[in-house]
């Protein structure tokens, strides 16, 4: 399969499942809260349901990738996305809203691992990292799209979600006709498809720790940044309107993660990106009324979040080299697990201490991960593990 064909199918599906089905909630939250009268703490819990669903789904995707087939899992992901978005559009209380957010969140967890498997088995080695990174950057496309739709439709959040569901259906059709119909064979899959080797787990300790902490830190931004920004009277209204668009458009830089890793190395790329990601939160916490900070912050966050998730894919697939599904699934699962706790904690802290304190706290958590950088594997070790595949 050609790399370009897979990117053209995978990028919009990730845009739908991540940008529309998952992260759009933070964009529409101010309007939903006003319409359904939901508190900040309840908003945090509902937001956490998306990440919790993601954790469940990504485990299922890793377990059944070979048995069900990558394409079939992606089709199921698309159906969950359409269903969840439709439920959100029709919700008239927090219970129905939570159900919609949960079901939409399932689509996110199901979508990522199958693409990693297809890349691993169908794409040439020299294009694998860049293909994974570009597919992953679909999140930024989806985020920018949600921002532009919200700009034109303002407070009509129900109609926005109906449009999202229609887009999700169209993308599902594209993937149905574009992806290879043949399932990944047992020969192509790892012989120990659910149990990577012991040495791989040892090498993954830093990856696991970093993923959880980055999840806690980023959940604050995704859930409450725009709600915070539009509530600051000193900032121009246009900034609040464009906030999500800035995050999304700047996130396009995330597609170059594979390229930069090949040029400067995974460790350097990781440290630089984490500093950018954490500084985005710090700017909102320290200078909430400064317009320049309000512009720089979403640009930093959008580009660095997509970039760091791209780096986690490279880090993961280079750690679990005998199992591509695990290489993507483990860091993304733990990132989402951190976001489950991060969303709940964020809602509680924001009510008790206020948004400025919350974003400073988020930044400090992010900065901690600077000290957990990717470990370079011994060449002999890599060859041994590759030989077991």
Chain-wise SSE layout:
Blueprint: H1 3-20, H2 24-36, H3 40-68, H4 70-90, H5 94-122, H6 128-136, H7 138-153, H8 157-178, H9 198-203, H10 205-229, H11 237-250, H12 257-264, H13 266-286, H14 291-319, H15 324-353, H16 355-368, H17 379-388
Structural features, described:
- With 389 residues, the chain is mostly helical.
- It has one domain: Up-down Bundle (Growth Hormone, Chain: A), CATH 1.20.1250.
- Helices cover 81% and strands 0% of the residues.
- It has 17 helices and no strands.
- Helix 3 packs antiparallel against helix 15.
- The radius of gyration is 20 Å and the shape is globular.
- The chain crosses the membrane at residues 7-32, 44-66, 73-89, 95-113, 134-154, 160-179, 200-222, 242-262, 269-289, 295-316, 328-349, 355-373.
- It is a multi-pass membrane protein.
What are the salient characteristics of this protein?
transmembrane helix; MFS_dom; mainly alpha; Growth Hormone, Chain: A; cell membrane; membrane; 389 residues; 0% strand; 81% helix; disordered C terminus; MFS
């Amino acid at each position: 399969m050609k790399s370009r064909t897979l990117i053209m199918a995978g990028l919009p599906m990730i845009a739908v499942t991540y940008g529309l089905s998952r992260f759009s909630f933070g964009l529409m939250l101010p309007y939903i809260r006003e319409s359904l009268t939901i508190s900040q703490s309840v908003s945090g819990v509902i937001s956490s349901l998306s990440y919790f669903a993601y954790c469940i789904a990504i485990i299922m995707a890793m377990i059944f990738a070979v048995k069900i087939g990558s394409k079939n899992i992606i089709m199921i992901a698309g159906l969950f996305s359409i269903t969840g978005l439709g439920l959100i559009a029709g919700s008239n209380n927090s219970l129905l809203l939570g159900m919609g957010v949960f079901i939409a969140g399932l689509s996110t967890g199901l979508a990522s691992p199958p693409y990693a498997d297809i890349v691993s088995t169908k794409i040439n080695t020299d294009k694998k990292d860049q293909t994974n990174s570009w597919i992953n950057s679909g999140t930024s496309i989806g985020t920018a799209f949600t921002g532009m739709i919200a700009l034109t439709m303002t407070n009509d959040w129900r109609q926005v979600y109906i449009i999202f569901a229609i887009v999700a259906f169209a993308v599902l059709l594209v993937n149905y006709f574009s992806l290879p119909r043949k399932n990944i064979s047992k020969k192509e899959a790892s012989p120990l498809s659910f149990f990577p080797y012991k040495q791989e787990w040892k090498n993954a300790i830093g990856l696991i720790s970093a993923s959880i902490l980055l999840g806690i830190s980023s959940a604050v931004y995704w859930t409450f940044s725009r709600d915070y920004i539009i509530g600051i009277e000193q900032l121009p209204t246009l900034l609040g309107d464009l906030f999500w668009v800035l995050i999304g458009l700047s996130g396009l830089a995330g597609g170059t993660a594979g390229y930069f890793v090949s040029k400067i190395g995974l460790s350097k790329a990781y440290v630089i990106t984490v500093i950018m990601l954490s500084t985005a939160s710090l700017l909102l916490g320290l200078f909430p009324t400064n317009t320049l900070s309000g512009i720089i912050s979403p640009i930093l966050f959008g580009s660095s979040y997509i970039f760091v998730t791209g780096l986690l894919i490279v880090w993961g697939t280079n750690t679990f080299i005998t199992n591509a599904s695990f290489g993507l699934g483990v860091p993304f699962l733990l990132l989402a697990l951190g976001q489950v706790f991060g969303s709940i904690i964020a809602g509680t802290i924001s009510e008790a201490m206020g948004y400025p304190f919350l974003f400073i706290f988020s930044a400090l958590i992010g900065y901690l991960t600077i000290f957990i950088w990717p470990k370079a594997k011994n060449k002999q070790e890599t060859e041994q593990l590759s030989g077991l595949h």
